[in-house]
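Continuing the batch. This is chain 6 of the set; chains 1 through 5 are on the previous pages. Same settings as before, nothing changed between runs. Recording input and output for traceability.
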Amino acid sequence: MSMPSSPPILVQPDRLLERFLRYVRVETTAAPGSTRTPSSDGQMRLGSQLADELRQLQLADVNHSEHGVVSATVPPTVSGDLPVIALVAHLDTSPEAPGANVRPQVIDSYDGGDIPLPSGAVISADAYPDLLSMKGHTLVTTDGTTLLGGDDKAGVAIIMELVQTLMEQPSIPRGPVKIVFTCDEEIGHGTDHIDVDGLGATVGYTVDGGGQGVIDHETFSADAATVTFTGHNIHPAIAKGRMLNSIRAAADFVSSLPRHRQTPETTEDREGFVHVHDITGGVGQTVVELILRSFETEDLAAYADQLRGLADAATDHWPGVRAEVAVRRQYRNLRDGLAKLPEAIDFAEEAFAHLGVECRREIIRGGTDGSQLTEKGLPTPNLSSGQHNIHSVLEFANVNEMLVATRHLVELVQLWATKAKS
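Output for chain 6:
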């Protein structure tokens, strides 16, 4: 595999790749609407596998909970009351694309240009210009019929490789490092069963970002909304003056939502949106599911009021049909919580500088487990993991970037140990 010649390699790239390939072959698709945690059996299988690997690495406090959360502690090599770092990744993959029978394809020393996949699909260099900087790198794709699962098994593999590297090289100064693998992040439940106080960490990092050299320091604030239209169904043969068709009111409601603004497909950067993503039901009742997103939390209340107004207007056209709007809090912008611990970002930037890797602070038009952990009191920015084209059958991972991400964690662990001690 073609890999950077500097800085000195502290991790084994071939082992990192083999580890990643092993994890992506385990189907862990999250199941929306499930009433159990984790929502799919594969997450428990992968968690059990990881717990066994952590025990083999001689971590003494490995735990695999009934809710699928895997946790363990890498013991310190520096004495004293040092900050505790928590490294977090999630085991589940998105339900937005098929995740069963993943067949990873390894491209050793990518030579540039389009990447044809066995299914006939193509990862286009024109459509994905970041490929221009990846010539000579090792890439992993699928066969084009499933997603890869680099979101977030790239992060899982990076953290596991870090654990093995630290345990093999006790000369690396470190304080306690908590390892946490969560379930059902993709459906909004990643931190439901994490006891932040019991974790005892000073700072957290989710390893769940794309590309290389990126430190995500802001996320959307997020709510979800369910708009339920209730009518009355009766046999259409005797429906005159009696049927109340909730579908018609729901259709008018959806049609009245903004089309050329305030949607995912018409916004970028710091622009928020209201996204209708699911409609179910029939004549008697129709349910419309939406998500509300903005970098400014106060916008969410305005979006919710907008939905109420549009729902009322829709039912006005269909007398007798009723509408109910229920809004659920999801997560909040990382920004506010991270302001309480600026070192979380400063040390991440310094760790990249030690590697000679350019880095940048970015915002996420989405959320991570770190959004909720930060809101619960554990400042948790998000770091790169080499994943690209996520939630798509055109997904791929860059193993060179995964290697840099692992080295970055080695540097970061040392900074928290040595700077805090000094």
